[in-house]
Amino acid sequence: MILYPEVQQKAQEEIDLVVGTDRLPHFGDRQNLPYINAMVQEVVRWHPVGTIGIPHVASEDETCGGYRIPQGAQIIAVIWSFTHDPDRYHDPSTFKPERFLPGNDRPPEADPRAYVFGFGRRVCPGRALADSNLYLSIANFLAGFKIQHAMRNGRPIPVSPQFLPGMISHPAPFEFDVQPRSSRHAALISSLESKHPWESSDAKNL
């Protein structure tokens, strides 16, 4: 959101129009928040947390694209290449939720959720939970907060997207500033503690 403030603004305008400022978004709002849904798709496409898929093994001899794949061969899908294929995604390095919305004289681009969670018999069983969690996290965070550059000596601290290596790709630490969008939003956020109070851990029972 720091790199693409116009995306943050569009998302917050949609939330304010559909949900208002008296409550936070919930699951029932999802079908009426197309831009937020497009953000969910673009988040997993722009930088998938699993840049390569879990290894598969060919159960029988196969031919794909003119290449022979023998039975027992290990196959690793490079998810990053799928999500940044310029034949599939226009300007793939840019974070652009609009690519998944109809209009702009082009059909919506391919939904990356079809493969970023794996595919075939090895597809992630938690993909629906992950997708729902992303929607709620994005919608609620943007409903209540504004994300912007941290300041130093009166100047914004620049941010460049860098990610740490590993099986799961995490963003490298960077400085940022998060503030409630208004006093009304701050009160709305604070009210959650009374609606959903902290409870003691169940660890002792486990």
- Tell me roughly what share of residues is in helical segments: 25-40%
User: Which class best fits the helix and strand makeup?
Assistant: alpha+beta
Distance between the termini: 39 Å
Q: Assign an overall shape.
A: globular
Offer a few descriptive terms.
alpha+beta, 31% helix, two-stranded antiparallel ribbon, 5 helices, 13% strand, two-stranded antiparallel sheet, single chain
Give a brief outline of the structure:
By secondary structure, this protein is α+β, with helices and mostly antiparallel strands. It contains 5 helices and 10 strands.
Q: Can you walk through the features of this model?
A:
With 206 residues, this protein is α+β, with helices and mostly antiparallel strands. Helix content is 31%, strand content 13%. The protein has a two-stranded antiparallel ribbon with strand order 1-4. A hairpin with a 2-residue loop joins strand 6 (151-152) and strand 7. The mean pLDDT is 92.
Please write out the topology.
Elements (H helix, E strand, L loop, with lengths): L4 H14 L15 H13 L9 E2 L4 E3 L2 E3 L4 E2 L3 H5 L43 H18 E4 L2 E2 L2 E2 L6 E2 L5 E2 L5 E4 L2 H13 L11
Antiparallel strand pairs: 1-4, 2-3, 5-10, 6-7, 8-9
